[in-house]
Amino acid sequence: MAKGGTRNPMPKLPPEIRIRSFEEVALGFNEEQAIDEAERCLGCKNKPCVYGCPVNIDIPEFIRLIREANPVAAARVIKKTNALPAICGRVCPQKEQCEKVCVLAKKSEAVAIGALERFAADQEAKHSNPAEPPKPENPELCKYCVAVVGSGPAGLTAASDLARTGYSVTIFEALHKTGGVLRYGIPEFRLPRHILDREVDYVRSLGVKILTDVVIGKAVGVKDLLNEGFEAVFIGTGAGTPKFLGIPGENLSGIYSGNEWLTRINLMRAHEIDYATPIKVPKRACVIGAGNTAMDCARTALRLGAKEVTIVYRRSRAEMPARAEEIENAEEEGVRFQLLTNPKRFLGNERGAVEAIECSRMELGEADESGRRRPIPVPNSEFRIECDTVIVALGQNPNPLIRMTTPELDTEPWGGIIVDPRTGMTSIPGVFAGGDVVTGEATVIAAMGAGKIAAAGIDSYIRQKHNLII
Ligand code: FAD
Ligand code: SF4
After folding, report:
1. Where in the sequence is the domain holding 389, given as residue range(s)?
2. Contact 53/98 with Cβ under 8 angstroms?
3. Has this prediction a pTM greater than 0.85?
4. Which stretches of 189-284 are DSSP H helices?
5. pLDDT, tens only, 4-35
6. What is the Å distance from ligand 2's center to 157 Cα?
């Protein structure tokens, strides 16, 4: 392939096969496709893609190594700044980040940076398992302990950067499994569990200790961690409290939050016969919302055996916030889209179970503060959508536990923890935060970027506190 030529499409399982299982949909490039795609890269001197990546991976350099048929070295370049490359290669919204600023995107299509990142990471695992961890930069720092609360992408990134610098790091995770949304939210057909386990194991191999089933803010609070010998604490507890519509009938049975729906399936294995946590298979499911969570809920409902699944969204397709690739996948699998439609109330039967949604049609007005055109109801346009299951996927707010048990922590009225954006430090000296708990629900890579900023902030905080010159 010539420099700048046509982009290689991601090979995928055909829709009729994928909707019958939780197998990964995107299959990844083979070596020939990866080298061909890598040859499209122009190797721009000013590297715009690197600045489009929140963790500043040296993209042209890792692509060059793939072109030279050395994917293991490519993966090592990525891992200098990103401990979770196989995850990011699969779930990052690249089209809005590194690929958006790729110079080829102006004329035709960007280099498939995400697909190449995934290729490098998977090849490294295949050829050198377990991946060799780098040595800590300053082993003398190991006498200083740092606590990380939450094992989502923000916590894993802060922990791995701190461990690589030399600190002794312990992650405290409330659930019985690691990964945060990467495990309980994003389904296996987008992110297989063995890939997540492999990258969490890599973080462990850097020396990070992970303790599961520990809820910080209950028996042990954030300030207790500081009093018990941790020099600093990073809070990466994410946003796990679902938002609801607040309309009549929302308590009917058969109505779930996106969070509950996905957790039941991804974490509690509700779709597997030998697990004691079953879920009712819908006949007609409606999913309210059009972000990544909504697409995941809709595609999961199809895989459970639902006959009909409809996304109900109050704006138009152009405003849908999900990754473009996932919207396309959902459409290919047969998910229907009822756009410019706003639910007004849920209607139930005599047993208290949902049987329909009363909706009104919408049209788009002027742009609102989010920059998207504001949906306005069309008068007298009410209609019903029949359904036996509704999944409300409108996003999440931060969990209130740490906020409520740590009154010195300054927070936004909606619950987000307030930090200094340059260091990630909160209103409590030595306590840092980052990821969805600060921004509200965002992206994996934004959470990782925040984890990196906080790790650097913690490093300089500890060095200043102890007058260290190493
Ligand atoms: P989380 O991933 O939420 O992790 C927080 C962790 O902290 C959890 O493990 C939680 O159990 C733990 N915790 C919480 N409270 C405590 C406590 N008190 N003590 C100890 N531990 C605690 N982003 C993308 O970029 N691409 C996608 O395709 C994508 N798809 C998504 C699909 C779904 C269904 C959802 C819900 C989100 C999706 N996102 C996606 C968003 C992305 O997953 C999040 O922005 C990201 O995971 C935030 O990372 P985090 O580390 O801040 O928090
Ligand atoms: Fe290659 Fe695109 Fe980055 Fe230029 S911007 S170096 S073409 S990936």
Report:
1. 244-394
2. yes
3. yes
4. 193-205, 222-227, 258-266
5. 678 999 999 999 999 988 999 999 999 999 99
6. 25
Q: What does the alpha-carbon distance between residue 438 and residue 429 come to, in Å, rounded to a whole number?
A: 17
How far, in Å, from the CA of 198 to the mean position of ligand 2? 28
Give residue 202 CA to ligand 1 midpoint distance, Å.
19
Mean pLDDT is lowest, of 276-280, 367-371, 416-420, for 276-280
DSSP string, 401-418: HHHHH-TTS-B-TTSPBP
CB 144 within 8 A of CB 466: yes
Count of Cβ atoms closer than 10 Å to residue 459 Cβ: 22
The residue contributing the CA closest to ligand 1 atom 29 is: 292
The verdict on 266 and 370 lying in the same domain is: yes
**Digit-coded pLDDT (tens) for 295-342:** 999 999 999 999 999 999 999 999 999 988 899 999 999 999 999 999
Same domain for 174 and 123, yes or no, is no
Task: Tell me the CATH number at 169.
Answer: 3.50.50.60
Ligand 2 atom closest to residue 50's alpha carbon, by position in its atom list: 3
| Closest residue CA from atom 5 of ligand 2 | 102
Of 8, 49, 50, best ligand 2 pocket probe by most atoms within 8 Å of the beta carbon: 49
Tally of domains within the chain:
3
Do 262 and 385 share a domain, yes or no?
yes
Q: What's the pLDDT at 44? A: 95
Query: Could you identify the residue written with the tokens 């969204």?
Result: 313
